[in-house]
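Hi all, long-time lurker, first post. I run a small reading group and we've been trying to get comfortable going from sequence to structure in the token notation. Rather than ask abstract questions, I figured I'd post a concrete chain and ask someone more experienced to write out its structure so we can walk through it together at our next meeting. Sequence below, copied exactly:
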Amino acid sequence: MEHIVQALKSVPLLADLPENKLRTLAGLGTERRFKPGEATAEAGTPANAMFIMLEGEIEGRSDDRAVFTARAGDITGKLPHSRMVTFPITSRAVTAVWNLTIPDSAFAEMLDRIPELDARLIGLMADRIRSFTADQVQQSKLAALGKLSAGLAHELNNPASAAARAADSIRAKLEELRRLDLRVASADLSHEQRVALFEAETRALDHARGCTGLDALTRSDREEELGAGLQKLGVANAWELASQLVDAGFTRESVEAFAREADGIFPQALARIGLLIAVDQLSAEILESMTRISALVK
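-- Answer (accepted) --
Happy to help. Here is the structure in token form:
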């Protein structure tokens, strides 16, 4: 028993007790030893004892995370006046453990013979409740942060995906634009024709950028009329191009006028305008997506 009494003197809560009272405490308990990994208390089993840690370390885990740790000098398990019925989690020895186990059936005698322990153990229980409450609050905050992170990730994913799609489309359209540039550049055009082509492209881009949108019925009618006119002029993918050119303010009459100005490179020149409008619109989509992402981050 003497070795237990000497070990109890290293427990902060008991260190100032007279040796005879430490001996009384040692006599009320049972000396127990555990190997690393061995369970010192099983979740769901009756909480019927207080454990005074004399050597080693134990850890209680829940959902694969450490909930509490007790080391040499700590008092854990069920305390007097506690309403604990069963152990909430399983605790295991991290290192070799030596403790003094005092059954709850001996609590009354313990407090009767060592009355100063009553207030001390009540204070210990209050500290444990505060620690448990703080941990619960922290877990709630982490759960809320997890939900916020998941929601933010979802909100960021939409504009980021839109920007990525637009960038990919721009790459493909730039390749088409390079091929058209080569054909336009190699055409035998006068300086006036090249200036007229540049001005037509500028007007088309400006109109497309300032376009506030047409109602569905009007847009459909204009696209159909323009598509038929382009098809009559022998333009490839006339109907796809019509959708872009409507935004640029082109009508069947203006396209026919442009065909006369562009002369032999009309299909290429018109397709080039369509591609420029498409690239400009995709760039605007990327800018809008990045603005949305920036706003979400802020």
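A couple of things your group might point at:
The mean pLDDT is 86.
The longest strand covers residues 49-55.
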